[in-house]
Design goal:
Two copies of one chain form a homodimer. Chain A is of the alpha/beta class. The first copy, chain A, has twelve helices and eleven strands. Chain A folds into three domains: 59 residues, 434 Repressor (Amino-terminal Domain) (Orthogonal Bundle), CATH 1.10.260.40; 131 residues, Response regulator (Rossmann fold, 3-Layer(aba) Sandwich); 130 residues, Rossmann fold (3-Layer(aba) Sandwich), CATH 3.40.50. In chain A, helix 1 crosses helix 3, helix 5 crosses helix 12 and helix 6 packs parallel to helix 7. Chain A starts with 15 loop residues before the first helix and ends in an 11-residue tail after the last strand. At the A-B interface, helix 4, helix 5, strand 2, helix 6 and helix 7 of A face helix 4, helix 5, strand 2, helix 6 and helix 7 of B. The structure holds a DNA duplex.
Chain lengths: 349, 349
DNA sequence: GTGAAAGCGCTAACAA
DNA sequence: TTGTTAGCGCTTTCAC
């Protein structure tokens, strides 16, 4: 049953000493070879690599972290991993991180401050080299813990007056203006907005940008048509139901995210209402699914790739060059409208 | 700008010594208090906790791991994090893991053996206490690495003859039989199957179970109607296109997963074909989205919660009781049909 | 260019 | 019940 165990003693995994012994060098040389941190002669280096291979040696990350103080671990906290926006974001972030020799630790806060707090504590215990908080504005209470420990941090949509913190500003305004403009051009005047939960920064921003865009387009703003929902499929259903109760319901609705919009699509269908003929629907995020809804969703794209890149860049800069006073501390990610099939002129046009 | 730094010296984080000094006990007592690994008198324990709080002390996980040999890290490798099935699985797994004091390290193999290999190496370097490989059958080449290092491992749908490995068997058969039965009862005879990629174990199993179910229902099996696709939205579109080219196309189609089915829904819509009137569609997985497609998707449920529980249980048993020869090494997760709106009698019935 | 040795922060064995 | 001490596996001075 035993596979070839070559050199090492029966049960114990090879460590740096085993390698050193086999290569007939000191452990310092092994370390230098692995990290190519100093000149090691070709002759020795070759012997070391050969021993590493033969032993199938893997350095122990914990030992490395302990002495070097760098864990090569990046934390990313998202709001809710079951909203496809976040896996897509994580995927991009992980790709970049791994390419740069980092590992990522993913946590989902599920919009629960207690959970968020635990996430943060765990990341701190694991000595994350940096933390990206992609919860879009529910983060206030626990940031202190991170910042106090001098861990670089990057936040979406939340400015922090601390040298260790960077911010990614999201320009929803552009995309939302485009969306309102698009609907106005189609002939819509009565446009509703299904907002995200008001405890979310981003939800509020989106809502305000909607109001601003309506104003800019000279369209009437009806308070009752701005409805607070969640950012979930289910709340899209609820939101739609509330909308259709009005005697003169709006002809178009912009949703604070795609999940909401997809919920609306579903609810409209169940009520026999046709999208886009009877109601135009616009989402926000442009998750991969948006292209595959029925009808394909017109939506405001928020690039996960751009967001992930910005987050990584911010963290990396802080980690690698912590004392540079000229570090870029603010990053901007923009949005833009993607027109698909869920928008059309209002009924009777 | 300085926040209250209480006791510790200006820049350095408090360590176990700092706590011991402040509480006027030995570091061993601090360690014992934290781990409540031995009797510590209330008096001292109280002093220790008080010092910990005052210093805002967080134990260093890497140091703990180094000496104890347990990282409290569980790896989970999934096939593709952007398929909603996996985030849903991860969420359940994380919940259980965290509740039991474990952290999880997530990796996406993206069906790339090279990536998978790196994932495995990274997990090994980080000394994961256990690894769940939820890639459903593309794992062969790299399992050795893990098993050789005596790390407990659990695999979906892949049996390994090693005492450190457990398996979660997936009983697709039940659900697929139900689906075929359901369609047969509606009056369908010409049923197609859009299969997953043939390099995936699970895809093959599902396909074979489909064939068996058709046979059991006494329905004709047409080889040309079993089409290999991917497990993605896009390949659902391609799959549908290939299906409709037939002069007498099938009246129903079962898809190897929900993403595929949702792609079919979309493609059918684009071609002006109505689901379920013109074509019945069945998915597999029952991702959260399935309830929100248009029409709501009839699908075979594979519970992520059950799967996550089984995976955790398997790992935990191996970790906590490694030498028990009577450990449960096989777990079963079943499937069942969920009837929604995407199935109906065939046209002309 | 290479090696010896100190020590990262902690747990666990042993003493008291 | 509590303290002392020896490492866990590695990186990093500091000699040579």
């Amino acid at each position: 049953m035993a596979r070839k165990t070559n050199y090492s003693s029966p049960d114990k995994l090879p460590d740096i000493r085993t390698v050193a012994a086999l290569a007939k060098v000191s452990i310092a040389t092994v370390s230098r070879t692995i990290n190519d941190s100093a000149q090691v002669s070709d002759r020795l280096s070759k012997r070391v690599w050969q021993a590493i291979k033969q032993l199938n040696y893997l350095p122990n990350t914990h030992a490395r972290t302990l002495v070097s103080g760098r864990s090569h671990l990046l934390g990313i906290i998202v709001e809710n991993i079951t909203n496809p926006f976040f896996p897509e974001l994580i995927q991009s972030f992980e790709e970049i991180a791994v390419a740069h020799g980092y590992e990522i630790l993913i946590s989902s806060s599920n919009s629960d401050p207690a959970v968020l707090s635990t996430c943060v504590r765990r990341l701190l215990e694991r000595k994350a080299d940096g933390v990206a908080i992609m919860t879009f504005g529910e983060e206030e209470p626990f940031i202190d813990q991170i910042v106090n420990r001098n861990v670089p941090i990057v936040l979406a949509e939340f400015k922090l007056d601390d040298p260790k913190a960077s911010t990614i500003l999201l320009d929803y305004s552009t995309g939302i203006h485009e969306a309102v403009q698009h609907l106005a051009e189609l002939g819509h005047r009565e446009i509703a907005f299904l907002a995200g939960p008001h405890n979310l920064h981003s939800a509020l921003t989106r809502e305000n940008d909607f109001i601003a865009a309506m104003r800019a387009a000279d369209l009437p703003i009806q308070k009752k048509w701005i409805i607070e929902c969640g950012h979930t499929l289910k709340s899209g259903v609820t939101g739609f139901e509330r909308l259709r109760k009005f005697t003169a319901p709006p002809t178009a609705v912009i949703c604070s995210n795609d999940m909401l919009a997809i919920g609306v699509l579903r609810a409209a269908y169940m009520r026999g209402m046709r999208v886009p003929q009877d109601l135009s629907v616009v989402g926000l995020d442009d998750i991969d699914f948006a292209e595959f809804t029925l009808p394909p969703l017109t939506t405001i794209r928020l690039s996960r790739i751009d967001l992930a890149h910005a987050a990584f860049k911010a963290l990396c800069a802080q980690i690698e060059d912590p004392h540079n006073p000229h570090l870029q501390r603010e990053f901007l990610v923009s949005t833009s409208l993607v027109v698909r099939g869920s928008t059309a002129p209002p009924p009777g046009r």
